[in-house]
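Quick illustration, no need to memorize.
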Amino acid sequence: MSALASLEAEVVDCRRCPRLVEWRERVAREKRAAFRDEEYWGRPVPGFGDPEARILLLGLAPAAHGGNRTGRVFTGDRSGDFLFAALHRAGLADRPVSVRRGDGLTLHGCWITAAVRCAPPANRPLPAERDACARWLRAEVPLLPGLRVVVCLGGYAWDAALRLLEHPLRPKPRFGHGAEVDAGPWTLLGCFHPSQQNTFTGKLTPDMVDAVLARARALADQPSGAGAPSARRDASTSAA
């Protein structure tokens, strides 16, 4: 078993946070009417993608009736529909749609994961739950040795990525759409979260996410040893 597969097995068996365990399993039992005939995943959701990824897409947590239902982060809801269409346009996914774990979708050069692996009530993990779940991201990132860029989908993911650093950046870089920071082991890129609240209101448009992914690809494809660009800190504090 590969190290990533071994980590996935540990993740899906996790029951460290009683509130999250109760919520994810209750949602999986009660279901949403539109999905009443489907079997929900109802467990922690592992990361997935290309083990040779140079780009990591980091989100907040699985959606109750998205990843918690399908078993794959950013899959089965409007956020995922928006994101996978963008990844396909960028040449990072072999198809523009993903419906559930094991549906044949293949990612090229990227890995997708979340800071918190269980669907939280109201999409808001408690600080203790965030901290308990951080162990999985800390274990996952070193298993992606080609990683050069972390695209943070929202302010929560931005903060989670900064907490991974052995030496915290001071002053702390502020999140904003298009924010770019040389974090040492990789470059952080900020992107508004592809939530319906953002995409339906035009806060995040296809052109905006396409620009971030194009920048991620340009950074990831730089020749080894070329060096990271000078750090740029966007003054925006907007979070997804």
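Strands lie at 48-49, 55-59, 110-114, 149-153, 180-182, 187-191.
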